[in-house]
Amino acid sequence: MNKPRKLAAGNWKMNGTLAALAELDALLEEGDRDCEVLICPPATLIHPAVARIAGGGIAVGGQDCHAAESGAHTGDLSAAQLADVGADYVIVGHSERRTDHAEDDGAVSAKAAAAHKAGLTAIVCVGETEAQRDSGETLDVIARQLAGSVPEGATAGNTVIAYEPVWAIGTGRTPTTDQIAEVHAALRNALVARFADGAGFRLLYGGSVKPSNAAEIFAIANVDGALVGGASLKAADFGPIVAALDAVG
Ligand code: PEP
Do residues 216 and 184 touch, judged by C-beta distance below 8 A? Predict the structure, then answer.
């Protein structure tokens, strides 16, 4: 089984207007890479981003999708609608969605299944809060979220797992390399136990990844890339992170 390429994914969250697409030009200028590069801009920018990239080697994704294909869900977007405008990926179960919109594991699993049905690769996020880490629950929380948020039918080709400790997102704090290695090993073991191709799923680390810590994080076993928030907004920051991932091969 060929493992998919390593993945550097940027989550722009609710940041950016059309002017921000200039950052894509700067990323494209850096040329081809061995790893895959993905930008998940706000929904308003997905179609213009796809047009701007014009097949130039950066994938585009959504930050969320509804579990239904269509219907009376004001303000929501379906996975099919994302695919229709050229998205290849969608993030589901980001901690900000779990918190702001009370999404539980069942809801996240339904969204991931909808993504698969529409031909999108789902990036399923899991991660413990600081209180859960402090009370020694991290591995239990991660196991529970993984089991509940990844649907049957997931494969190494249509699903990516992102480990994002809630307390590390946007805070400038990161777990130690041993802590990341421990969680990623647990994720790998759980995937291998459940899926025939569990060894091939890409496991991303997310939470305050920046140019200065990327190489150290990418050297950790079972880290196949990163989901990057703040440092993905500017090509001057995201470019070096992509280069660091390329450098580990
Ligand atoms: C994220 O929200 O997915 C994230 C990892 O954010 P940041 O890189 O800003 O911590």
Answer: no
Mean pLDDT for all residues in the chain: 97
Domain count along the chain:
1
Instruction: Give catalytic residue positions.
Output: 94, 164
- Residue ranges making up the domain that contains 236: 7-248
Residue 128: predicted pLDDT: 98
Indicate which residue's Cα is closest to atom 8 of ligand 1.
229
- The residue-averaged pLDDT of 158-186 equals 98
We report the CATH number of the domain holding residue 219 as: 3.20.20.70
Domain-located, residue 1: no
Q: Which residue has the tokens 């990036």?
A: 123
- Return the best residue to mutate from 64, 164, 174 for the ligand 1 pocket (most ligand atoms within 8 A of CB): 164
In a domain, 2, yes or no: no
In this structure, is residue 71 part of a structural domain? yes
pLDDT of amino acid 2: 67
Residues 6 or more apart from 238 whose CB is under 8 A from it? 8, 10, 23, 27, 228, 231, 232
pTM: predicted TM-score of the whole model, two decimal places: 0.98
Residue 16 domain-assigned (yes or no): yes
Interatomic CA distance for residues 137 and 130, integer angstroms: 10
Pick from 209, 232, 237 the residue to mutate for probing ligand 1's pocket: most ligand atoms within 8 Å of its CB. Answer: 209
